[in-house]
Amino acid sequence: MNAVFNKLRSLDAYPKVNEDFYNRTLSGGVVTIVSVAVMLFLFISELSLYLYTVTESQLLVDTSRGETLHINFDVTFPYVRCSMLSLDAMDISGEQHLDIRHNIMKKRIDSHGNVVEVKQDGIGAPKIERPLQKHGGRLGHDEEYCGSCFGAEESDDQCCNSCEEVREAYRKKGWALSNMDLIDQCQREGYVQKVKDEEGEGCNILGSLEVNKVAGNFHFATGKSFLQSAMFLADLLALQDNHLNISHQINKLSFGAHFPGLVNPLDGVKWVQGPSHGMYQYFVKVVPTIYRDIRGHVTYSNQYSVTEHFKSSEQGAVPGVFFFYDISPIKVIFKEQHIPFLHFLTSVCAIIGGVFTVAGIVDSSIYYGQRTIKKKMELGKYR
């Protein structure tokens, strides 16, 4: 058994020196203090790096199908009245949404940008007292209201109970609505007068859209359905120059939820129209993105890049601001993670061992240098 212990003792890579042979020096104390300070600094740096979350990215082919795209927007038009501004959307599948009002908020603003009125689009129409019925008489006490579409009905039982529904019926027929004051619904709602009351005002429109996850476009058009068969509403002819000025500022445009590090390139972009009218186009490339944070919470969103182009009305462009978007086939996955603990432990061991080794070399160099100088001085003294 002693032979085994002796064999193990001979393999000791750390031979011990008797304390009687220790020689502590001033330079050794200074080197020790400096080395401990360096080790402490490097350890704190490594610890902070270990606690810091690192975001790793991964590119994959997007194989998802049947999903929807959530679009958030906040756009200000300083020279377009809210009553003459509409939002339309369509995609390559053929689905169309004209004059969208759901989840849309409009703010009337004056020439200085101050808010005049805030109203959810499509809400707040005045109460109608004894409106004109489809059969020509006034609404009775026990009757259900069914307004006339003034010849634009698609079926015998179709009703148009508001000015907006009459305009929509005419739009579907492709007819021009030449005088809205002759329409009972518009006359009672004071629609034309409301448009005239907004003279000199602008509009801030904000809200969200839920569209199919396919290529398409959404656009802010001026004039709503006043433009029919290349004709403007007679009572609004004087407003043409104003509502064709599509100068705008994009306060916010995003395709999905926000996640850390997301940059929307169109946020805060402002464009001022020159002397010619036309269509301002944004061509957007949407990149599906998944973000997984350190706690495992997953956010499904999108990033995008964009290019811009202005097309003059002389080239046949319809005045408006158009956003043409296309979906990238590549999906990006971001994942937050820490440096592995074993990596951290290895780095700490390397710091301690490395600093001790370098400190030992420095201390030995100083010690043997001092001894050499001392011996030379003693030899010179005896000579």
TrEMBL record:
Q: Domain (Endoplasmic reticulum vesicle transporter C-terminal): give its ranges.
A: 149-363
Primary location class = membrane
**UniProt organism field:** Arachis hypogaea
According to the record, the segments passing through the membrane are: 21-44, 341-368
Q: Which InterPro entries match?
A: Erv, Erv_C, Erv_N
What is the name listed in the Swiss-Prot or TrEMBL entry for this protein?
Endoplasmic reticulum vesicle transporter C-terminal domain-containing protein
- Pfam families (UniProt xref): COPIIcoated_ERV, ERGIC_N
What keywords is this UniProt entry annotated with?
Membrane, Transmembrane, Transmembrane helix
Q: Which GO terms describe its cellular component?
A: COPII-coated ER to Golgi transport vesicle; endoplasmic reticulum; membrane
Reply yes or no: does the keyword Protein biosynthesis apply: no
Locations listed in the record? Membrane
**Domain Endoplasmic reticulum vesicle transporter N-terminal, residue spans:** 8-97
